Amino acid sequence: MHQTDVSGLQGTREATSIDTLVWDAVFAADEQARESSRRTIRERAASQGIHLASIQGLYDAAGKGLYCNRTVPAINIRGINYMVARAVFRAAIKRKAGAFIFEIARSEIGYTAQRPAEYVACVLAAGLKEGFRGPVFVQGDHYQANRKRHAAEPEKELDDLKALIRESIDAGFLNIDIDASTLVDLDKPTLEKQQEKNCEVTADLTRLIRSVQPGGVTVSVGGEIGEVGKRNSTVEDLRVFMAGYLRRLGPGAPGISKISVQTGTTHGGVVLPDGSIARVKIDFKALEDISKVAREEYGMAGAVQHGASTLPDEAFDMFPRVGAAEVHLATGFQNMIYDSAYFPKALLDRINKHLTEHYANEREPKDTEDQFLYKTRKKALGDFKRELWDLPRESLEAIGQELEDRFALLFQKLNVVDTVELVERYVVGKAKT
C-alpha cells in the first residue's frame, strides 16, 4: 500500500493505485483519510461491475427446487484480508464460481480489529485487483447474543447487536446470520420453552433488518437452532423454532432464508494435546433431514454447517450430496497462514511469546503448550495486524498461492464451480456501493 504492492506489503513506494487505496483504507492515520479511500474503492468497484449483493434470490430458488446439490462456502477472513480475498477471487475466476460468501463474525470483528466498512473495502479492493465482475456477497456471521451479558443486561446486549447490524448493513453487509441459539435453554421442560427466547430475539432482529435494508434489496437473514458444540439439532427443533419465530415475526415481512444447526462439530475443532485436531463424526443424516424439511415446509435453502474448515477433505464431498445450503469455513485458513513454511519463523516466535505473556488467563489447567497456543493465536491476528500485512512479498505470494489452491479444491468439492450463470439468473438488486 503506502509502501508497496500488497503481494508484498513492505518495500518500494512504486505501488499500484488500488494497493495504495486499500492500505490507506486500513492503516491511514485518521478516520477521514481511511473513509475517503474506502469510498473511492466502492466507486471504482461499481465502475468495474462489482456490486455488493444479497444472496436471497439464489436461496429462494433453492427453496423452490430450481437447483440443488450445491453448497455455498462462506469464508471467514480473519487476517491479511486483502491478500486472502485476492486468493478467493483468483480461485473463483478460474473456476467460474459465483456462489461464495465473504464473512466475519461478531467476535472476529473484535479480536481481528476489522470493522465492517474496512472489511468490505478490503474485499472490494481484492475483486478490483483480480479483475472480478459481478455480485459480491458479504455476510455478518454469528451475530450472536452473548448468554451471560444477555442474562445480566438483556436490553443493552440486544441494543449492541442492533447497532452492529445497522453498522454492517450501512457498510454493505447484505447477508446477516442472527445467532440467538446461545439463549436456548435445554433445562426447560418442552422444546417450545427451550426455543422461546431464540424465537423472540431472532424475530426482533429480523424486523430490524427489514426496517434498515436498502431499497430494492432483501437482506438474506439466517437463523440458528442449535449452538455449535452443544447437543445435535433435530427436525423437531426446526419445526418448533419456526412455529415460534413466524408467529412472532408476523405476516408480510420475509423471514429467514436458511437455518444453522449443530451436527457434531465445534468451532476450530477439538484440539489434542499435541496441537493436532481430533477427527469428528458429523451427523450427515440430520443435516440432510433438516435441509429437506427447511426447503419443503418453509421455502428456505436448507441447513447451514458451521465449524467445518478443519474437517478432512472427504467430508466436503458430502455437503452437496445431503443438500446443505451453506458451509462456514474459518480456522482452517488461519491455520494455513500460521503453519505455512513461508510464514517467517521469527515472527511466529514473537507471536507465541506475546500470546504466552498476554493471554495466560485464557489457559485451561489441562492445556498443553500446543493446545494453549492453538486456541489463542487467533487473537494475534489483530494484535499483529500491521506486521502481518507487512510480510515480505515472497511470503505473501507463496501463502496466497497455497490458499488459492485450497479455495479451488473446496469450490470443486462443494459443487460451486460453474455457478456464475446460476447466480446471474437468480440474484437481483444492486446495493449502493
Q: What percentage of amino acids are in beta strands?
A: 5-15%
The CATH fourth-level homologous superfamily: Aldolase class I
Q: What is the ordering of alpha helices and beta strands?
A: HHEHEHEHHEHHEHEHEHEHHEHHHHHHH
For the record, the CATH architecture stands as Alpha-Beta Barrel
- As for the CATH topology, it is TIM Barrel
Main attributes of the structure:
single chain, 433 residues, alpha/beta, TIM Barrel, 8-stranded parallel beta barrel, globular
Topology:
Layout: H1 17-27, H2 31-47, E1 50-53, H3 56-63, E2 72-76, H4 81-95, E3 101-105, H5 106-111, H6 116-130, E4 134-144, H7 147-152, H8 154-171, E5 175-179, H9 191-212, E6 220-224, H10 235-249, E7 258-261, H11 284-298, E8 303-305, H12 313-316, H13 318-321, E9 326-329, H14 331-339, H15 345-358, H16 369-376, H17 380-383, H18 385-389, H19 393-413, H20 420-426
Parallel strand pairs: 1-4, 2-3, 2-9, 3-4, 4-5, 5-6, 6-7, 7-8, 8-9
Helix pairs in contact: 1-2, 1-6, 2-6, 3-20, 4-6, 4-19, 6-8, 8-9, 9-10
